[in-house]
Each structure stands twice: as C-alpha cells, then as structure tokens.
Amino acid sequence: MYQLFDYQQKLVDGARNALAEGHQGVLIVSPPGSGKSVVIAEIARLTTEKGGEVLFFVHRKELVNQIKDSFIKQGVNLNNCTIMTVGKVANRLNYLPKPNLIIVDESQHSRTKTYLKIFNYYSDVPRLGFTGSPWRLSGKGFKDIYSAMIEGPKVKWLIKNHKLAPFTMYGYRLGDDSKLKRGSGGDYTSKSLDDFGKTIIRGDIIKSWQKFANGRKTIVYCHSVQFAKEVAKAFREANISAYEADSKTPANERDRIMNDFREGKIKVLCNCDLISEGFNVPDCSCVVLLRPTESLVVYLQQSMRCMRYQPDKDAIIIDQVGNFTRFGLPNADRDWTLEDRAKHPQREGGSDGPAIKTCPECFGVILASCHECPLCGHSFEAEFRKLAQDRRAELEKINLNAKELRERKKKEQKLLLRDPSTFTSLKEFAIYGKATGHKPGWAWHRAKAKGLVK
Prior knowledge:
Layout: H1 6-20, E1 25-29, H2 36-49, E2 54-58, H3 61-73, E3 81-85, H4 86-91, E4 101-105, H5 113-121, E5 127-131, E6 148-151, H6 155-160, E7 167-171, H7 190-198, H8 202-213, E8 218-221, H9 225-237, E9 242-245, H10 251-262, E10 268-271, E11 286-289, H11 296-303, E12 315-319, H12 323-327, H13 345-348, E13 356-358, E14 365-367, H14 381-395, H15 402-416, H16 426-436, H17 440-449
Parallel strand pairs: 1-5, 1-6, 2-3, 2-4, 4-5, 7-12, 8-10, 8-11, 9-10, 11-12
Antiparallel strand pairs: 13-14
Helix pairs in contact: 1-2, 8-9, 16-17
C-alpha cells in the first residue's frame, strides 16, 4: 500500500468532509505530478472497504490502466469498482451497477457532453473530480458540477519540500508567430499550426537541445503527428536515439517504444498529444515544447512532465514556441476558482506571480526584476537605463489637450480589435497590454520576440 504524504491525506480528509457536509460534487485540485492517483486510490479503498460501489472514469484508455494499477497497489476491492473510459460508461448506463461514489480524473473535461450525460443519469450520486488545473479555454466554470473545491499545495511548496523537482526554463521562439490563428474553440487552428511549423528550422531544435539538455531523457511535444515524425528524424540524423509515438501507432509498437524510453534505450520521445496526462517516467528530466497553445491546461501538463521528483534531479524545460510568455513559469501561484472566467486565456490563465523575461545571452527565463542573469551572469543594466529613459519620455507627454485625448482613445479602441501578432511597434504592444490588463513587462517581451526591440 501507498503511504500517503501529509498533504495527500489532507486532500482525502477534505474531500470526505465536504461530501459529509452535503456537497453533491467536490473538485480536488492538485498540481501535475503531486500524486493525485494515490489520493484517488485511497478514497476508493475507503469506499469499497465499507461495501460501497465506486464508478471511476476518465477520457483515455492509458489512464484507465494506470488507475487500475494504483487501485491494486492500494488494496482496493476491484469487485466493487467499475473502471472505464468515459465513452464506455456513457454507452452502458443501463447495465452498470449503480455506484455510491463517482470519481473522475482530469476533470477539466467535465463540461463535455459525455461527462454531463453520466452526471445527469446519476444525479443523486455524489461525485469527486480531480484535476491539476480547473480551467477551460471557453472561460466556463464548474460551479454547476462541483459545489466545493479542495486545493492541494502550490508548485513552489512541492518543490521546496522535495515532492517535485526544481527546474530551469529556457525560452525563445523558433517559429513565425504571425502564422498562428485562433479557431472558434480558442486555441490555434491545425492549419495555422502547420504553417507555423514550416517556419521552424529542424536543425535549430537539435542545436538547442544539445546546448541545454544534451544526453537527458527527453519528451518533445509537437502540434501534429507528421511534425513529430520530422523532429524525431532530425534527432536521429544527429545520431541521437529518438522515436515518435502517437495514438495511431500500432499498440504493440507503441508499447515497445514506451518501454524502451522508460529503460533508456530511447533518449528522445516525440509525440503529439499522447503524453500529456498520466504518463509517468520519473527519470525524464527534460521536455521540449514545440506546440504553441492558448490552453493553460496543456501548458502545465506538458511543461511539468519532467518535474516528477527524484533525489538530486534538476529538470530542464525548453520552450521554443514562447508559451511561457502567455502563462508564466510552471511554479507561478495561480488562483483557481469554480466560477466562470472572462474568455481571455492570456490574462485570466496567466501567472499571478512576478513578471518574467528571457536572458538574451543564455535564453534562460528569469525574474524581470533581475539586473543580472543568475544562470549566465549577463547584465541588464543597459536595458534598465533605457527603460527608465522611456518612462521619463512618457511622462513628458502627459500634457495632452482634450482633442488629443479623444484621438488617442479612438486609436486605442481600434488597436484592441486587432490581433497582437500584427503589431509593428513596442508602443502598440504597450497600449494593448495596458488596456487588457497585462503586466508591464509583457509588451517588451512580445516586441522583443518580434525583433522590434534591440
């Protein structure tokens, strides 16, 4: 059996107390890699131990197999458990035994029709949802599904207390951001991602990996299967053992690739949306992000995949598509809520922590307040002096008459209707950033990434 850590036991107790208080739905939030499956297994054990029936479902088969293993290790009575993918449960509602408790993993998907169908069918059955990030691109909340939320520790606490590995992030953009277009769902369209991918020089991906993470067991996240295959090929051409695996890879071959990666026979594993949820390889110490996204959920799941704890392990995150500029560092404190949010992924899903910047010398992602890069020693004094001069220049322009103010307001309103990728000056980014609630450094970083700031 697992020996639960104190913070995991608090989640178990908090969930059970919330149900005892009469909440029909309780959402448990704990960061990726914090051991939610252990908490799920313990709650299932306590329920089945008293003869209760548990219904567990999740959206992917691989996650079903993993939770079965966790249940077995925790001594859960599987005779009192139904463990399936959400699709199978939805198609068997008339035949399944009625549960005393429903448990759902990766509950950020709870708003989809299949999940709601199950919840409505078992409307009188209490449910527990588990997620690392209760956040959806639509901005829609979860308060109609879960009436209480129990939060686990923050990422910073987990790192400090040796439950997640510390990390260093290196960030810059290899592709042309102007190619990216948002679809109706909020994230970038497949076509625009393909267009973006064509602007990335494959050799630059390999060079950066060799510079920052040479020899590390690495997962590379790509936007498409074809792109993942191309990246894997580029690694192999550089005499680095790399393979691609996806949902359409034959099961036997995919299992072999995964096992070879776990055993270290494969150094780099490239994939498209296959290894974001539940995949556990503790000695993987590097991830490479090659998929731009507007989804905070995707960003956290992928960037933190290398942060599973092992003694003396330091993780490396190489963000080559600038996702960190939208969401901050993985260890930024975030205020989760069950309420609806405004549909502004860059703003309401972003970091609640301090502003960040990229060192132009080593590409390390560091605090914006740093006058010297803690990774390579690069001095930012010249940049700070220029920023001070720019601010003084702005102060000199405040004596505008009423007509000038009206004209400026009209220009700002027109600017807000444009896509930031079309901006051609730091000033446009600054006006847009101030109007939309971004932090002061956001405009400088975006302009720098487009080559507008030297």
